[in-house]
């Protein structure tokens, strides 16, 4: 479970959002470009510090401005999939995947390497370098690396935005299968109604830095 209540001023732009991500399922942060979605997910990850507020993961506080709590990103147990994957170019797919595992204590490792490879269909790619992968393959590897950190919550910041429509259609079934197999609560940022309607169990609509709507995706078209 992820509880978020944050405020942040970025120049003349203000963010003030409150929402809850329940387990399991995919909660989408949906809204137009510039609405503050990525800033919110970066505050959750610990990459951007809120001015005020609280963030908790499974009941554990990782940020509280009043109590002076600000847990470093590497100790929040959050997996992050960026827009561009950010794979290590000098490492093979296998080494990119196991890099995440090295950051996790053995007694905390939940998702097995073999299971992640199977669910994301990475078996034939393990010895390739990122330069030899398609955009869709890179994102599947990035998802696998995040999963293998054994996150309490998975953060995905517009992971399909750099892909063409064919590659997007290729990746969506993998995201759905990942969610079904591992049941990891996921916060998914997107401005694509097609992605949200295909993936999301719950939608938080962000407009001008605030929560405009919060509920099931079936009302998305009438609320935006």
Description:
The protein is 30% helix and 28% strand. The protein has a single domain (2-223), classed as Rossmann fold (3-Layer(aba) Sandwich), CATH 3.40.50. The model has no long low-confidence stretch (mean pLDDT 89). The protein contains seven helices and eleven strands. The protein has helices spanning 37-45, 93-102, 113-119, 135-147, 165-182, 193-199, 220-223; strands spanning 2-10, 13-21, 26-30, 52-57, 60-64, 69-70, 78-81, 153-157, 186-190, 202-207, 210-215. The strands form two sheets. Strands 7-8-9-3-10-11 form a six-stranded mixed sheet, with helices on both faces. It has a five-stranded antiparallel sheet with strand order 2-1-4-5-6, with helices on one face. By secondary structure, the protein is an alpha/beta fold. α2 packs parallel to α4 and α4 packs parallel to α5. The chain is globular.
Quickly list its features:
alpha/beta; Rossmann fold; 6-stranded mixed β-sheet; 5-stranded antiparallel β-sheet; 7 helices; 28% strand
How would you concisely characterize the structure shown here?
The protein has 224 residues and is α/β, with parallel strands linked by helices. The chain has helices at 37-45, 93-102, 113-119, 135-147, 165-182, 193-199, 220-223; strands at residues 2-10, 13-21, 26-30, 52-57, 60-64, 69-70, 78-81, 153-157, 186-190, 202-207, 210-215.
Describe the SSE topology.
Elements: E1 2-10, E2 13-21, E3 26-30, H1 37-45, E4 52-57, E5 60-64, E6 69-70, E7 78-81, H2 93-102, H3 113-119, H4 135-147, E8 153-157, H5 165-182, E9 186-190, H6 193-199, E10 202-207, E11 210-215, H7 220-223
Helix pairs in contact: 2-4, 4-5
């Amino acid at each position: 479970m992820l509880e978020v209540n944050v405020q942040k001023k970025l120049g003349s732009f203000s963010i003030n959002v409150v929402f809850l991500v329940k387990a399991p399922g995919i909660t989408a942060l949906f809204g137009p470009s510039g609405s503050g979605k990525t800033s919110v997910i970066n505050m959750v990850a610990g990459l951007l510090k809120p001015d005020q507020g609280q963030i908790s993961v499974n009941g554990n506080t990782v940020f509280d401005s009043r109590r002076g709590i600000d847990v470093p990103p590497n100790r929040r147990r959050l997996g992050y999939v960026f827009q561009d994957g950010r794979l290590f170019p000098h490492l093979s797919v296998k080494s990119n995947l196991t890099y995440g595992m090295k950051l996790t204590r053995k007694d905390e490792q939940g998702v097995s390497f073999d299971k992640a490879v199977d669910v994301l269909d990475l078996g034939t790619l393990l010895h390739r370098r990122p330069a030899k992968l398609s955009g869709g393959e890179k994102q599947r590897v990035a998802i696998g690396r995040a999963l293998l950190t054994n996150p309490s919550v998975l953060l995905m910041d517009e992971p399909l935005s750099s892909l063409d429509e064919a590659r997007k259609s290729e990746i969506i079934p993998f995201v759905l299968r990942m969610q079904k197999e591992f049941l990891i609560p996921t916060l998914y940022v997107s401005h694509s109604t097609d992605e949200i309607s295909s993936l999301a169990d719950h939608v938080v609509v962000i407009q001008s830095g605030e929560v405009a709507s919060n509920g099931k995706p079936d009302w998305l078209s009438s609320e935006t």
